């Protein structure tokens, strides 16, 4: 009886060990599958945080997690007809952006929709913005040092302070944008369509948002 009992205990221990090994394997598989969807989850969390921050614009703009999860689950249930997991996640991410954009925009005052669009871009693609750019745009940038020289002569006097702030935020633009060359910038400053009047040699040296800041 003792030998049979020991054999039974050994068999049970073997079964338990095998079950634990199988459980660990399944856990690893689940973790790997979950990690595949992490980029979409990260995108969703970024967008939700951005949506919650809209209450800073107007206290009426309050959106619950439950409402956001309805949108998120709608996206997850879309039938996209693609085989590649990577492509599926890319399309799901795009659909989430579109769905949130339209859903939230309908709830905003018209005057706030552009601000929301820019805020959404910045939240989704923070890597597209260089240090100080967003702060300059919001008007919250406080320079630690002033530019070493006065504003260029081509700059209108009523915009000199704004240009100086831009120069303080980005010390290299004097050289990179060649701000000291009046021949390059005078026609641009005098144009009533300055967004289309950048000199081609300078245009490629500026990011899209930097052009927005300069026009602003």
Automatic annotation (TrEMBL):
> Gene3D superfamilies given for it?
1.10.8.1220
InterPro entries registered for this protein in UniProt: DHC
GO terms for cellular component: dynein complex
What is the top-level taxon of the source organism? Eukaryota
* GO MF: dynein intermediate chain binding; dynein light intermediate chain binding
One of its GO biological process terms is:
microtubule-based movement
Name used for this protein in its record: Uncharacterized protein
């Amino acid at each position: 009886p003792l030998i049979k009992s020991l054999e039974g205990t050994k068999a049970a221990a073997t079964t338990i060990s095998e079950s634990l090994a199988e459980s660990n394997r399944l856990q690893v598989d689940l973790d790997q599958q979950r990690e595949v969807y992490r980029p979409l989850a990260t995108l969703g969390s970024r967008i939700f945080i951005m949506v919650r921050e809209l209450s800073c614009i107007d206290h009426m703009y309050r959106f619950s997690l439950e409402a956001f999860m309805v949108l998120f689950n709608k996206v997850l249930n879309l039938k996209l007809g693609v085989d590649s997991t990577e492509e599926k996640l890319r399309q799901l991410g795009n659909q989430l952006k579109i769905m949130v954009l339209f859903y939230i925009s309908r709830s905003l005052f018209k005057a706030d929709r552009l601000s929301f669009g820019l805020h959404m871009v910045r939240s989704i693609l923070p890597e597209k913005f260089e240090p100080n750019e967003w702060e300059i745009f919001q008007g919250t940038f406080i320079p630690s040092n002033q530019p070493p020289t006065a504003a260029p002569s081509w700059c209108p006097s009523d915009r000199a302070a704004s240009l100086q702030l831009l120069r303080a935020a980005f010390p290299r633009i004097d050289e990179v944008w060649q701000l000291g060359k009046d021949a390059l910038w005078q026609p641009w400053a005098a144009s009533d369509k300055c967004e289309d009047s950048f000199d081609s040699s300078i245009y490629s040296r500026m990011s899209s948002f930097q052009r927005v800041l300069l026009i602003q």
